[in-house]
């Protein structure tokens, strides 16, 4: 897959994720619901496109310090704005990480 195609997929998924999870600035995933969500599969198409991994390859960048992570601080698995309906590992990472 070329860079332009990857960029297009990333933008499509990002837009879908932001629209899917937020509406009018409100977070639609409540903490009680979040814990019931399935864990994101590293082989999921969107996860693969963003090189998501359950264990970050970086010491200073992981899901727990990414601005796109949601949910309760301290939980091992939490919702992420880019992966609506799934939980990511707080120790994970993807190429959309933003500090
Ligand atoms: S690093 Fe990627 S998967 Fe982790 S919280 Fe940030 S955007 Fe989500």
Automatic annotation (TrEMBL):
Pfam families: HIPIP. GO terms for molecular function: 4 iron, 4 sulfur cluster binding; electron transfer activity; metal ion binding. SUPFAM superfamilies: HIPIP (high potential iron protein). GO terms for biological process: aerobic electron transport chain. The keyword Transport applies. Keywords: 4Fe-4S, Electron transport, Iron, Iron-sulfur, Metal-binding, Signal, Transport. It comes from the Bacteria. Residues 34-99 form the High potential iron-sulfur proteins family profile domain. Signal peptide: none annotated. InterPro entries: High_potential_FeS_prot, HIPIP_sf, TAT_signal, TAT_signal_bac_arc. Specific class of high-redox-potential 4Fe-4S ferredoxins. Functions in anaerobic electron transport in most purple and in some other photosynthetic bacteria and in at least one genus (Paracoccus) of halophilic, denitrifying bacteria. NCBIfam families: TAT_signal_seq. This is High-potential iron sulfur protein 2. It comes from Photobacterium proteolyticum. The lineage of its organism: Bacteria, Pseudomonadati, Pseudomonadota, Gammaproteobacteria, Vibrionales.
